[in-house]
């Protein structure tokens, strides 16, 4: 049975994912260290893990597998979930899979090295937009349908 796992601490698309999960009658797990409001939706379960580095990521990685969908922007978590056979989406709708996760990991590591080499480097990611939200909804619909067929 398909489950949608949401790396919920900084996820900007929890409400959108809940709408899609409800439409498909699929269970959704919001996994975080706390600080998020639980949903009244019976298909949505809030899982609060202990504080600590990557505790929520480890909880998701231990459970996600073939036929599941994981929503995260954490690239190492995405790599573990892809390896376990789960479908993985970033918040902007980008799908991470066996064909691209190596390049995405390498890019992440390169950017981390560049930031640590220049502590005065300013900037960050681009703001989350309506287009990103729409792209996510389309991608989740497509990926969820594929996951349910497995």
Question: What descriptive keywords fit this protein?
Answer:
single chain, 150 residues, Rossmann fold, 6 strands
Structure summarized in a few sentences:
This protein is α/β, with parallel strands linked by helices.
What does this structure look like?
- The structure is a single chain.
- This protein is 44% helix and 16% strand.
- By secondary structure, it is of the alpha/beta class.
- A six-stranded mixed sheet has the order 3-2-1-4-5-6, with helices on both faces.
- Strand 4 (69-71), helix 3 (75-83) and strand 5 (87-89) form a beta-alpha-beta unit.
- The longest helix is centred in the last third of the chain and has 20 residues, at 130-149.
- The mean pLDDT is 89.
Label the structural class.
alpha/beta
Number of domains: 1
Low-confidence stretches: none
The total count of strands amounts to 6
Q: Approximately how much beta-strand content do the residues carry?
A: 15-25%
Looking at the overall shape, the CATH architecture is 3-Layer(aba) Sandwich
The CATH class, by name, is: Alpha Beta
Strand order of the largest sheet: 3-2-1-4-5-6
The total of helices stands at: 5
Helix content: 40-55%
Identify the overall geometry: globular
SSE succession = EHEEHEHEEHH
Sheet bearing the most strands, described?
6 strands, mixed
Cα(first) to Cα(last) distance is 9 Å
């Amino acid at each position: 049975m398909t489950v949608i796992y949401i790396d919920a601490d900084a996820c900007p698309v929890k409400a959108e994912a809940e709408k899609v999960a409800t439409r498909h009658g699929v269970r959704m797990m919001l996994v975080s260290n706390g600080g998020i409001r639980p949903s009244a939706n019976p298909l949505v379960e809030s899982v609060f893990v202990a504080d600590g580095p990557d505790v929520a990521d480890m909880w998701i990685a231990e459970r996600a597998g073939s036929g599941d969908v994981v929503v995260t922007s954490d690239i190492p978590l995405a790599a573990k979930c892809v390896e376990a056979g789960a479908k993985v989406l970033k918040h902007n709708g980008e799908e991470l899979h066996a064909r691209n996760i190596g390049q995405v990991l390498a890019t992440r590591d390169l950017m981390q090295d560049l930031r640590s080499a220049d502590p005065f480097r300013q900037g960050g990611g681009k703001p989350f937009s309506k287009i990103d939200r729409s792209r996510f909804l389309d991608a989740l619909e497509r990926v969820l349908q594929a996951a349910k067929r497995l």
